[in-house]
Each structure stands twice: as structure tokens, then as C-alpha cells.
Amino acid sequence: MPNSPGIIPLAIRALAKPSEGVTSPWSIVCLGYLLTSWAIIPHIFSRNKQPVSTLAWIWAVILFPFIGPLFYFVFGTERMERKKLRASRELAASGIRAGNQISHHSRTLIATLSEGERAAVEALSNINDYAVSSAEATRLLIGGKQFFPALCERIDEARDHVHVEFFIWRDDPRGRELRDHLLQAARRGVEIRVLLDQIGCLHLSRSFFRELVAAGGKFAWFRTPHPFRNQWTFNLRNHRKLQVIDGRSAFIGGMNMGWEYAGEDPAIGPWRDIQIEITGSVAKKFQMIFADDWFFATEEKLLDGRYYPARTQAQRLLVQPMPGGPDSLDDSIQMSLVHLLNSARHRVWLTAGYFVPKEPLLSALELAASRGVDVRVLVSAKSQHPLLIYVGRSFYDELLRFGVKIFEYAKGIDHAKVGLVDDQWLLVGSTNFDIRSLRLNFEVSALIRDPERAAELESTLRQDFEQDSHRIDLEEFRQRPRTERWKESLLRPLAPLL
């Protein structure tokens, strides 16, 4: 039996001599194969992805001529270019400190730090392109039952503006309740801006905010899938949960808007999440982050000084803003986490809604535990995305061997993204410890030096570890069924898509 000539030689023959027994439909299929494969492969090389990722996408395009290119356009984009506000210079000209300008209050607080902490603060400011700032007070909000009333209270007190940014907003009793508070604020003359991720809110119609817009409020989608403006970025999402009230108070954390996030959906059950309210000068920098996102969505510039009011009260806490996203060539949040792990002296406790660490973070966890730091990772044993549980468990064996302590939260879904570093610093934000958050999503977190809140978070996490979680034992884990191991191994390569 003669050898097959192969699809590419056959395609060439079919195009050159269509009459020699090769049907016209087959010629079209072969031509489509050649065009899609040959056109996309140079583009894949031009993106300068990691070598393993580059080779994987090239093989996907070659072996699956139509499905491969389609998946590449939907899931292959890891970076995007977007028009940024870049308002630091304009604000500075108006006497407003923003971006990398360090205030007098912050310098005074930095001077009280140890040499090691000062070096860490300097490094983090450089990594994140936002200088460390200061705050008057913080309030840790555990769960939706604390967060939703606190946010509504601040909206009711607002005098000038309310800026709200979420990844998910549900059309349910909780979602409608917050919308109604915003509506009442708009009717009394407060500027309202609502920015939502279009992919995260596929279930939500713009008409949900019709009354709010009619009352003078503004609503916009953060549109990552916009082929005419920023190419094909379906895989990149705005995962930030950020709310700024009157430029003086900012809420940061992992809370979306809906009754499931308050633990009130019986189909899902208890839901653990954490948000923090920060009042003080640093709110201006979180305002800058919102303004950048709002400009991308609407091209409206938020440069008026009233959005960035000066603070006269004593600023007693240091706060490092940590924004990150695929519009930056630097994985700033991952670099910050690695730096914190390397700088920790005796403790790093982390809780991750989704845990799929990239290699630098994986190594940093192992190295910290190896030098005697108490490294603990709390992962939810139940998830809205159960496949990610298996992916996360594929890393357990290696981490446990190096002394990292792993706990699985068993009381419900733990969606919080928080951390404790030694006795002074706490981390709260929207960033999961997975590939999507560390590279593909727009995220925002805050690193805060606040011994009082750190002690409060320690108490919460200690209860999680000791009462509401199951600690993973290495020997017991190695005895898990073979089918579990196969699931972990098969799903691990899909981690960036989940």
C-alpha cells in the first residue's frame, strides 16, 4: 500500500492541479488549513511567550487546523495594550500627589521602620509603580453580612461621588439592594459610576441600571473582548473589586455583588470572603486605579481635584497599593508575593480561593518554609470551579515535602484572598494564587502595616486552621486513590484556561 503523501503536499497538489481526482471541497479544506496554520504560527512566535507555551500553541494549530486557531484567539492572548489615563503628571501639576510621589506622612512612617522593612517597602513601591502611601484607619469586614451593610452605609453618607467596580454583579435581592442605594445617592446629586466586567456579568443586562442612569448615574462595561479596539482578549478579565467613596474611603477585597457572596444562596451554602475598608490618603491612589479603568471603558478623564482630596488628619498606617494586569509586561503582583515570602522572618499565612501557583511563587513558598518560616496555605475544599481543586492538589506533594502546611477549608466555600506576613503586615485583595490572577486578570490588592488588623486577621485564620479546616498530611495524601492522581495530572496543563 503506497505511503500517504501527507496533508500539506496533498494540499499543494490539490491547489496546483484541481482536476487530478481531488474534489473541490477537499481543496478548500486544505487551503483553509494552510492559511490558518501558516498565518497564525508567526504571530505565536512574535508574542514571545514562554517556550513551553509557544510550542504547545504551535502544535495545537498544526494538529487541529480549525479548532486550534480558534482556541488560540480565544485563550492564547496573555497581554493586551490599552490606552491609559496616565494622569500622575497632570495631577502633580495641580498639587495633587499620586503615583510614585511619597507624601510627608508616608515618609514619617517609613522612618520608624526597621532597616529590613524599609528595604522591603522601597522594593514593593518600585515593583508596583505605586509608591507606598498612608491611611488613618482600616476596618476588616468578614463576609457579606459585614461588607454589604458597611458599603451601603458609606454610599448613604457620600456627598460628592461613589465609584464602584466589581467582577460579578447578580440580579438578585443583594444586587438590587446595592443598586437602590446608588439610585438614592444619584437622586440627591451624588456622582455615581459603576464599572463591571462584561464577561463576569454575562448574565446581567445593561437595563438593570436603567433607572440609575436616568437619575444621572453612569454605567460602563470593562470590555476586554473588543476586536476593533484591543484585539481578541476574551481570556483577559477585570477581576478587581474596588469601591471608592468621596476620594477618602476605599474598599478592597474579594467580594462580588450577590446573595451567594453573603452565604444566602442555599444551593451554594456558607461563603467566606474578606474585604477591607481603608480611609486616608491612600484612597487617592486607589482612585487612580479606578480612573484608569474608567478611562479605558469610557475615555472620560477623572482629573478634577475633588476626586483626590487632601487629608489633614494624622496618617498612622502604611499601605502599599498592588495593582496588576495583562496590560503590563511585569507580573507585579507575583513579584510582590515572592518578595514578601523572601522577606518574611517567621510567618506567612495565605488563604487562596483558587490555588494554582506559578513556578516563581511555588519556589518562594518552598524556600521560605525551608528556612524555618511558618508557611501556611488555606485552600477551599469546595469550589464553584471544582476542576481547579484537582489542579491545586497536584502541587501538594512537592509543597508538603518542603514543610509548607496546607489546610483545606471544610465549612463552605472560602473565596477570601488574604495573607499575614509576620506580626505587622496583612494583605487583602482580589488576587487568587493561580495563573489566571497572577498573569491574565486585572487585579488589585493592598498590603497594610497595621498590627491591630493583623491580630484580628490572625484570630480569624487561626480558627479556620484549627476548627474549620482539615490539615493535609503528606503520608495520608500519598495514599489517595489512583483515579484522583490521574484527574490531577490530566487537568494540570489546563490550569491557565480554568
Structural summary, described in words:
The chain is an alpha/beta fold. The chain folds into three domains: 69 residues, no CATH class; 209 residues, 2-Layer Sandwich (Endonuclease, Chain A), CATH 3.30.870; 166 residues, Endonuclease Chain A (Endonuclease, Chain A), CATH 3.30.870.10. The protein is built from 20 helices and 19 strands. The strands form three sheets. Strands 1, 6, 11, 12, 13, 14, 16, 17, 18 and 19 form a ten-stranded mixed sheet that branches. The protein starts with 6 loop residues before the first helix and ends in a 7-residue tail after the last helix.
Gross geometry:
globular
CATH architecture of the largest domain: 2-Layer Sandwich
How many strand elements? 19
Number of helices: 20
β-strand percent reads 15-25%
Q: Say which CATH homologous superfamily of the largest domain is assigned.
A: Endonuclease Chain A
Tell me the distance between the termini.
45 Å
Give the mean pLDDT: 84
What descriptive keywords fit this protein?
alpha/beta; about 500 residues; disordered N terminus; Endonuclease, Chain A; single chain
Topology:
Elements: H1 7-16, H2 24-46, H3 51-63, H4 67-75, H5 88-93, H6 104-110, H7 115-128, E1 133-135, E2 137-142, H8 144-157, E3 161-166, H9 173-187, E4 191-197, H10 210-214, E5 218-222, H11 227-230, E6 237-238, E7 242-245, E8 249-253, E9 271-272, E10 274-279, H12 283-298, E11 317-324, H13 332-343, E12 347-352, H14 359-370, E13 374-380, H15 386-393, H16 396-401, E14 405-409, E15 413-414, E16 418-421, E17 425-429, H17 435-440, E18 441-449, H18 451-466, E19 469-471, H19 474-477, H20 482-491
Parallel strand pairs: 3-4, 4-5, 6-18, 9-15, 12-13, 13-14
Antiparallel strand pairs: 1-11, 2-10, 3-7, 7-8, 8-10, 11-18, 12-16, 14-19, 16-17, 17-18
Helix pairs in contact: 1-2, 2-3, 3-4, 7-13, 8-9, 13-14, 15-20
